[in-house]
Structures are given as C-alpha cells and as structure tokens.
Amino acid sequence: AALTVRFLTRRFIGEYGDMEFIYSHNLTVDGREILFHIWDVPNSQEQAEEGSLEEKRIQWADSFVLVYSICDRASFNILPLKIQFIKATKEGQSQEKVPIVIVGNKRDLHHQRVVSSEEGRLLALSLDCGFYEVSAAE
C-alpha cells in the first residue's frame, strides 16, 4: 500500500490496515496517456485464502507487482508460490508471458535487512520476473 500511495500521490504514509483498494490513475508515458487501474491487495500469508477470489484478481490484471519487505523473510518466501499460481492461472489460457515484477521494499532499513539483494535478484531470474529494490519512504 505504501508504494501504491507513493506512486499515486508522491507522499509517504507509513501505516496501513489490511484493506483492499482499487485505484485509477492517469499518467503520460512517452507522450501517450495511460490509464492505470491498480488493485492493491494486502499480503495474505494464509494458504487458505479463497482460490476463486485470488483467481478473480489474477484474471482482472494485465501485469503484477509483488512486493516484499527486505526486513521480513516470510513475505519473501511466499513469492514463489504466488508467482507460480499467477503464471498457472494467466498463462494457462494463452501462450503470452505475463509481466511480473518482484519489488523488495524498505531499502532504507538496511540495518534490519534479512533478505539480501542477491537473493531477490536470483529469485526473479529463476522465475523470469523483473526485479527492483526500493524505499517507499525515500
């Protein structure tokens, strides 16, 4: 949520609840007006989440940005399963590769880091995803 709000408003807000939001945002890229619809879903580490709801979210989206905290190993460890589920759901219907980017957040909290940049890069490489490390706060 912090990254989404930062992208939309250029402001940082540190605390968020566990609520879902859908945002719309216009942006000019290379002289073209692009309308983004962002479905911001908090991380659910429960494997028991309803599969049909998760599939609905995946079918709705054209691309995915999966964010983990570099200070939270569990948020990183859940990524491979989520990415496999996304690919099975999206790519099972077509031969097109689904755009997925993995983002390590909280780069500013390097003193609390438990997931190395190299681990993030290697995971992204092994799953054929993009990779970035950022700080929503900075």
TrEMBL record:
It comes from the Eukaryota. InterPro entries: P-loop_NTPase (IPR027417), Ras-related_GTPase (IPR051065), Small_GTPase (IPR001806). SUPFAM superfamilies: P-loop containing nucleoside triphosphate hydrolases. Its EC number is 3.6.5.2. GO terms for molecular function: G protein activity; GTP binding. SMART domains: RAB, RAS. Keywords: GTP-binding, Hydrolase, Nucleotide-binding. It catalyses: GTP + H2O = GDP + phosphate + H(+). Belongs to the small GTPase superfamily. Ras family. This is small monomeric GTPase.
